[in-house]
Design goal:
The chain is of the alpha/beta class and 260 residues long. It has a single domain, classed as 3-Layer(aba) Sandwich (Rossmann fold), CATH 3.40.50.720. The protein is built from eight helices and seven strands; from the N terminus they run βαβαβαβαβαβαααβ. The chain is globular.
């Protein structure tokens, strides 16, 4: 089955690298028009846009901090002027912050993670839904994490934000479903990107990580991107209000394979 998104207007936040870039390119390859949001790295964003165009798609870049309500509003205004609206939002922008136990953490740094990962996802979803609901169609897909459900010591802001985004997804789906709009979350596990190069490039750290993944391999950004294309397409037209995990069964707690 070939999945096509011809003519769909899509925005991917945090799309100048890693998972976001892979999703943007996959959407473009399926025929969508793709807006590539980024905060820093103009050249990287333009490179992603160039790859979308080289594959026959249409792309534009939009610089904005998703943690700023004003900048998010301005970004959606640009899409209105360029394309007359939006059909697909992929909330991908996120940070994990510096590792620190809660009692030793910097409240401002903790708040920054929430501002980007949760408030940013809300701000973009709010703007997208304000356009999709009157139109009677559209999809909001938020990239969360296995840390929706798996605790991660030292990263309480990140886990709180991702768990919050998961429940926000379910609630927004409940609100939007009567209007023909779907809202979902996509939760990656350990994905091989530059941001975690220090782990997968270190043999000992990699060995420890693979013990947590029943499929015994890291995911690739394309593993997540392919699922994103499926979920925002009509193939998944009866799927909403849930999180789809792309994690090699990390959330299956592999240690319990050897007994409780």
């Amino acid at each position: 089955m070939e999945i096509r998104l011809d003519g769909r207007r899509a925005l991917v936040t945090g799309a100048n690298s890693g998972i976001g870039a892979a999703i943007a390119e996959a959407l473009g390859a399926a025929g969508a028009r793709v807006a590539i949001n980024y905060l820093a790295g103009d050249e990287a964003a333009e490179a992603v846009a160039g790859r979308v165009r080289a594959a026959g798609g249409e792309a534009l870049t939009v610089k904005a901090d998703v943690g700023s309500l004003d900048e998010v509003e301005e970004m959606f205004g640009k899409l209105d002027r360029a394309w007359g609206g939006i059909d697909v939002l992929v909330n991908n922008a996120g940070i994990d912050g510096a590792r620190a136990e809660a009692w030793a953490s910097d409240p401002a740094a903790w708040r920054k993670v929430i501002d980007v990962d949760l408030i940013g996802a809300y701000a973009c979803a709010r703007q997208a839904l304000a356009r999709m609901v009157p139109a009677g169609h559209g999809v909001v897909l938020t990239v969360t994490s296995v840390h929706e459900v798996i605790a991660w010591s030292g990263y309480s802001a990140y886990t709180a934000a991702k768990a919050g985004a998961g429940m926000m997804t379910r609630t927004l789906a409940q609100e939007a479903a009567p209007h023909g709009v779907r809202v979902l979350a996509l939760a990656p596990g350990a994905i091989k990107t530059d941001i975690n190069r220090s782990v997968w490039s270190d043999p000992e750290a990699l060995r420890d990580l693979l013990e947590k993944i029943p499929l015994n391999r890291l995911g690739e950004p394309e593993d997540v991107a392919r699922m994103a294309v499926v979920l925002v397409s009509d193939v998944a037209s009866y799927v909403t209000g849930t999180t789809v995990f792309v994690d090699g069964a990390m959330t299956d707690y592999p240690d319990f394979a050897h007994g409780g």
